[in-house]
Automatic annotation (TrEMBL):
EC numbers: 6.2.1.12
Gene Ontology annotations of biological process type: phenylpropanoid metabolic process
Family as reported in the entry's similarity comment: Belongs to the ATP-dependent AMP-binding enzyme family.
GO molecular function annotations of the record: 4-coumarate-CoA ligase activity; trans-cinnamate-CoA ligase activity
UniProt entry keywords in alphabetical sequence: Magnesium
UniProt domain AMP-binding enzyme C-terminal: residue ranges: 460-545
Keyword Oxidoreductase: no
Catalytic reaction list: (E)-4-coumarate + ATP + H(+) = (E)-4-coumaroyl-AMP + diphosphate; (E)-4-coumarate + ATP + CoA = (E)-4-coumaroyl-CoA + AMP + diphosphate; (E)-4-coumaroyl-AMP + CoA = (E)-4-coumaroyl-CoA + AMP + H(+)
Cofactor(s) in the UniProt record: Mg(2+)
Enzyme class: ligase
CDD domains xrefs: MCS (cd05941)
Pfam families for this protein: AMP-binding, AMP-binding_C
Protein name (record): 4-coumarate--CoA ligase
Amino acid sequence: MEVVQEVLKHGSANSVRAAIRADKKSYSLAQLIAASLDVHNILCSKNMARNGVQDSLEENNGTGLLHGARVGIVAKPSPEFVAGVFGTWLSGGVAVPLALSYPEAELLHVANDSDISMVLSTKEHHEIMKNLSIKCSAYCSLLPSVTSIPSEINPQEPSSNEVTSSVSSLITEINSSKKIKGDDPALILYTSGTTGKPKGVVHTHKGILSQVQILSEAWGYQSEDQFLHCLPLHHVHGLFNALFAPLYSGSVVEFIPKFSVSGIWQRWQESYPKDASKTDEAITVFTGVPTMYTRLLQGYNNMDSDQQSASSYAAKQLRLMMCGSSALPSPLMKRWEEVTGHRLLERYGMTEFVMALSNPLNGTRKEGTVGKPLPRVEAKIIMEDGTETTTGVGELCIRSPSLFKEYWKRPEVTAESFIEGGFFKTGDTVTLDEEGYFIILGRTNADIMKVGGYKLSALEIEAVLLEHDTVLECAVLGLPDEAYGEVICAIIVPKEDAKKMAEQDSKPALTLEALTSWSKDKLAPYKIPTRLYLWDSLPRNAMGKVNKKELKKLLGA
Ligand SMILES: Nc1ncnc2c1ncn2[C@@H]1O[C@H](COP(=O)(O)OP(=O)(O)OP(=O)(O)O)[C@@H](O)[C@H]1O
């Protein structure tokens, strides 16, 4: 709620300025707020309660609030999506962003698991969502379109002052009646399911506010910033780092419909033409996952030298470039810095607490690390025997004002996920370097391999293999073995030129023998992969992550 309130404040101060850009149109904060009010009216209308099939909506009882009813939101990254979330919050509902990429079975799992009462969707998804709503006994409505900033003022439209004051009085009324409390659920996000069936992670209004404040403070988000946004909105990276926190800080968010290598380079070049001018709509911040930076570099390699120099020049002008969601390989970080001058700011986060550790905005950004705890976040490492360590290896545990409230309808799992003092067990194995920077060794149950008595980090081995000239991408995992417990298997995607050369010579791009001999002075003998697969690509989810549990099943079979 406070995020909406803050957006409202920025909106009142500067109602005509764009807050969001999408599909070559601009949307002001006032327009966003007006659309949120429309969503609120849809959700809380009596008509809606009468037509609605769910108790929670009927319990509305004329209070104008949904009392925590779950509202599924289905829209591509757009102002309509934002208005859907804000309108749900203004109505006392809990927003559940639904992934556009999910197959129906997974959508149904999320919709049923979260007991969705209502689905709000844009036109392009409405037919599918109507069918889904019937199956999960929910009501379905269209998200109202948000009007864009017109070239001329339309007298029919309510003035921005009228709209902001309507929302302002609604918020004052809600606040004074204490109908929505900070501890109330506001958002349910589903985990990607790389470690089990997707679970609903419940975030509260208070937790969301804390997180956006932490990020704005740590990374210096400001109203002059303009974010280029190309991430999905059902994960914390796209939702908090690149949308809620920027809007809270009064920044502009420009959505590009789909990640496109040429689109991104072009957008940076348009922002900063080489004649040293800068457009009003110049992008200043970019945040992405490692695979995006890999692809952007591939695109860069394919440019002619003029294009390369224009691209490098433009990228250098941005204020900040960040990376996370999975490990950023050192060669990628180094090459990106050579090309753009940006030392990527790597940070670590998770659905359950959003962001917790980060390399600094000002200060040394150390490769292979995810930095230190963000403001007001506490982190400790707990070893297998339950004791804390500052020098050894163990499970990362996090306490933060942005910690989730619970796993939806899973009280036992929630209880098991915390240790004394309210620290959340991340399931990630970590250690500290000599300066207290955290190093992520990987998911304990997917990236930590047990090979002949050694516990090995797949991420550490991947980082080394990525230095090989032939290797474009790789995933290392442990496969069951009678003698050793597990053996190290590397799946490697060779670089295009290496593949072409190998095809010409009718040879594989890389052999296990060649990899072993190359690895000898880089890895201890027990860390060298003993199985090798050459693939054309790695299967990745919407956040660019490889599901190693699935890969193990596939290769084990
Ligand atoms: N900078 C980073 N370096 C290495 N790993 C990271 C980094 N940032 C995030 N991660 C990984 O991503 C995980 C959090 O992602 P998310 O919450 O989407 O969970 P998931 O593992 O993908 O899915 P699930 O919770 O369903 O298993 C972290 O626990 C960590 O393993």
